[in-house]
Structures are given as structure tokens and as C-alpha cells.
């Protein structure tokens, strides 16, 4: 698309008061080019660069990435990935074959071609994922072997000398997390239990970085022994981390040149690697999960560790304790890598829902859980009283304990204490020059009073997912007329159905007319002609989908987000929460996405952004239509060109 299209979109966004227009896209979903694809997407590939250039031309101001930590061969969920180590499945292999690139030719072109050609053409997403894991391991082993061999030469090439220098600096700067993360792999291989340390949890190796009293000297000696005996494995681990870190740096430079901010995902969970290395920070008797809610009535037992409140601050009550130091280290790394942060499930930082660890029925346990800091006198959770920040008189017993109104009121001092972890995020972002709007709070079905007070203090909004709106409840938080300027509004996210699939379901269930009436009320302010517009929407599902997008831009929100499947007209679901399915976390943008997107545009089955922006502007009424008459003509012309090629 020409620069004129981007300029047109930018002008329309400004007219609508939208300052952030962000595309949500996880790493595995990026498209690859045929000669570089081993079965999984990477944001650092050439195929990704082509797609991000397209996003720039669509006027996007930012890209929301998912968590980018290391996943395992049996669990591709990014929300179970590592917190410090980056996912080496993201290393783009093709640049490592370029003798003139920043890494030199560490990988042979023949090896890359062999791995690409071996990708399974049949089989499900699990087969492709396993091939990607296998291929990446083989390729990176060759890369490491080449680097070691070339580095040892007396006449090592200048590119290798430079790379070795950068590698030494990288290892020194990140030693605090590189060594524990590498030793986790070393011990897993030694004990034949990669990615699972529970079998050796009761040994000294199971608590090297959280020794019991009296074990400190033995743990330190064992760490030194492992670092010496397994020096090559530790060094290789660090080298792979260097590669993915440097490729991320290239992406940041490219994105900045295109005017695109990169948003990271501050996941609430811990990988097995992080749980092992940081187990001293956690409560032992409780896990974190999701309570029953409107969209998930059963709740979800996540089995995530819970940070120990008694380690937030030091015994003096003033200086940071181990937990806050951990948060500072994590945020310092993330904010050096991203322009903003999405806080995944901020409830976990403010008022986590906890349930007993070790239960034979985790689902029942999570349903009978409680909020860590809001349970002063529960007979089934007496242990939680020591962490309570409220008194029994501040609770509304008519509400379920997971209800948003369980806590009735708070003092400013109580709000401050609830916000201790959350404040580390806001403070770190502010100290590094991030705008308030670049901290995103993924609040969906539930907004406990405690969390609402913490967010309000910092002027932060929540997520509004309009496909979930209850059209029979005017006060429903997902309805676009209830969106506040500081909120982030979207039709769906990575955990919802594609809008295009949903519209088909609405049609099949004969509820399309209800959606049409609501959207006509939102987008056609004058009573005259509204019924005809509603009928048009009800009879044209593609137009109704465009109107659903327009509803976002017609809201008061300054920030609008779209998931890639909704943008491109893809009907598949990326992740079905609470389900174990190989299709989860696997949906990819195909190689020929540009052709497919153009075809879907012609069929009215993908986001036609100029058409959507024109609908949103017209929702401002006669005065807005007059003020933006010229802009509307140009938007209509651009929309027609995308739809009809005219």
C-alpha cells in the first residue's frame, strides 16, 4: 500500500481522537518465506519484516507481542515460557547464512535448505511444532560449532572477532539470569528429566538457588562445580541467548524506523525453569489461578506460584525485599527490550486468587479459593488472615468471595499496600520515559474493587472486548458506550473466537438482527434512516463485521487494538482457554497472506480499514460529516479501491 494510504489512515485516526492503533500478534503466528520456514513463525524473519511493513502501511502505531520466553517441546504456550531467557525458536536462521551479515555465515545454506524441505506437509500443528523444535536445535548446534571453531583460529574473521567481543559483554551483563537458566538445562539432561525438576526437587540440586538454612555453602560449591564441569553447555546456552537478543534488537531498530512501538507481555505465570531458580520467593501452600467468572464459570487452576508477601520488602519495612528486587530486575530487562508493556492478569499483582497446592482436584480447589489479601477471616483458609489488608467489616458478605464487590471500601493506605507490586511496573515504566498509555492492563471479565482502586490511582484503563457485550444490559462493561478514554478497546483477543467466525454463528443462531440494531444505534445517530441501516447490516454479515470494527473507533477510547486473525479475515481460533488442544498457540499467517487478504477484502470478509474509519466518523452526526467531508470522500474512495479495485 502506498504512503498516501498510511497518511489517510493517520489523518482519520487523529480526527477520531485515536492515538494508539495496535496490532496484536504472537511470535509463532508470523509468516515466513518459503526458503526460511521450518514450521513456526518468528518476528525476526524476512517474512515477518514484509508483514510488518504492511502493518505500517495500514497506519498501525504499535505491535503487541505475546510473551517471548523459552517454551518447551511439549508445551508451546507462551504464558508458560521463561521470564528472562528469550525463546530461541525465534532465531531467524536465514540471516545466519549471510557472510556479510552481523553474525557471518555461521550456518550453511545447505543445512537450512534441508531443514526447510523436511518440514511435514501433512500432520497437525503438533507435528510442525515438533519439527520446528528439532530443526532449530540442529541448526543452532551447527551455528555454535562454527562459532567455536572460527573463534579459535589465529586469523579469525573480523565478524567473528566482533561477535566474540559482543558475546563476552553479553555474558557479563546478564550473568545473574543466564547461569541459573543454563544450569536448569544441564541438570535436566543429567537427570533425564528435561523441563521437569519435580523428580529431583528434594535433592540439593532441586534448591541450588534457594537452599535451606545450613545448605548455603554446599549449594554455592555445587553451583561452582557445575559451572566448571559444564562450562561448554553453559556457554552454548548463553550464545543462543545472544543470537535471539541481537535479532530482537534489529527488530526494534526496524520498528522504530517505521514508527511502530513494540509492546511486551508481562505474563503473570512462571515457567518450570523460573519456579526452580526462584522457589525461595514463593508461598509453598498456595497456587494462583482464575476464579469463576462470567466468561469462565468454572474457573481455571493455573498452578502458578504465588509470590510471598512477607518478602516484598526487607525486615526494616523500607528497603526492597527479595520479591521487589526480582520485579525490578525483570522490569529493567523488559523495558530495555520494549516500548511498552501489557500486564497480563494484573489481578495477580494486586489481589491474586489463590487455592491450595497439592489438591487431588485442582478445579474444585480453585473454585473454593480466595483472594490473598482480602480474606481476613475465612474458616476454610485461616492461613490467609496473616496476609489480609482489610478487616472483616470492609467485606460485603452478600457477594461471592470472587465477586468484584467483595471488598466494599479501602483507605488510601490500604490501596498503597495492595499496589506494592503493581507500582513497580508503573514506576519502572515512568522512570524509563514510557507514557502512561503504554502500560496496558489486561482486565477482562472481573475487576475486583481492590484492583479498580489501584488502577484508578494511576489513571489506567482496562480492556474492553466488544464481542462479549451483553446487549440486554446497558451497564455491561464490554459495551462500547461504556468505554472510557483511557481504556483499550478491541473486538477480540488471542483467547476469543475470530470475529468472522462469530458473525457466522450469530447468523446461524438468528441473533444477527440484535447486533445490527445495536450497531445501528451506535453508528447512526439520527433516528431517521436508522432502521434502514439496521436492516442493511442484518442482511449483510460482512458489512455488520465492518460496523463492529467501526464501533471501536466510534467509542471514547484513545487506544484501539486488533488481533491479527480479525484483521485478515481468518476464521480460526488461536487459543481456546482452559482446553488442551494441539491447535492452541499454532495459528499462523500463511505465506500468501497478501493474496488471501486481497481476496477476502473483495468478498467483504476482512477488515477494510478506510470503510471502518468512514463509518466511525459518520457516527459523529451531521456536524462531524460536514467537518470531515473531504476526508470522508477520500476514505470512501480508498475503501472502494480495496473492495473493488476501482
From TrEMBL:
Report the protein name in the record: 4-alpha-glucanotransferase
This enzyme's EC code(s): 2.4.1.25
Which molecular-function annotations from GO does this UniProt entry contain? 4-alpha-glucanotransferase activity
Taxonomic superkingdom: Bacteria
Q: Which SUPFAM superfamilies match?
A: (Trans)glycosidases
A single BP term in Gene Ontology: carbohydrate metabolic process
Q: Which UniProt keywords apply?
A: Carbohydrate metabolism, Glycosyltransferase, Transferase
UniProt record similarity statement: Belongs to the disproportionating enzyme family.
Give the catalysed reaction(s), semicolon-separated: Transfers a segment of a (1->4)-alpha-D-glucan to a new position in an acceptor, which may be glucose or a (1->4)-alpha-D-glucan
